[in-house]
Write a structure and sequence with these properties.
Blueprint lengths: L1 H101 L1
Length: about 100
């Protein structure tokens, strides 16, 4: 009778050890799966962020090119206007200098 009780206790302990080992294995698998999923999510978000950064950089480069083009056009127009004004005043300036020096 005592022997049967001892056998039952040992059997229960063995079953308990088996359940504990199974639970540990299951928890390790769950943790590994969660880590893998998290790593994949991070990789995906990183790739999305890189694509968005490239898109924004491309848009900014287009804006900068447009700004440079407009600035060059404005510079050319301003330069032409200054040359025109200088040309108009050239004769007056020469006459004023001649009168000042000789007149």
């Amino acid at each position: 009778m005592v022997s049967d009780t001892v056998k039952k206790v040992l059997s229960a302990e063995s079953a308990s050890d088996s359940l504990i080992a199974e639970a540990k294995a299951t928890s390790k698998k769950i943790i590994a799966d969660a880590e893998s999923s998290a790593e994949e999510a991070v990789r995906k978000k990183t790739a999305e962020a890189e694509q968005e950064a490239e898109r924004l950089q491309s848009e900014n480069e287009l804006r900068i090119d447009e700004y440079r083009r407009k600035a060059a056009e404005k510079f050319s127009a301003d330069k032409a206007e200054l040359y025109s004004a200088a040309d108009k005043n050239k004769d007056k300036t020469v006459d004023a200098l001649i009168n000042l020096l000789f007149g």
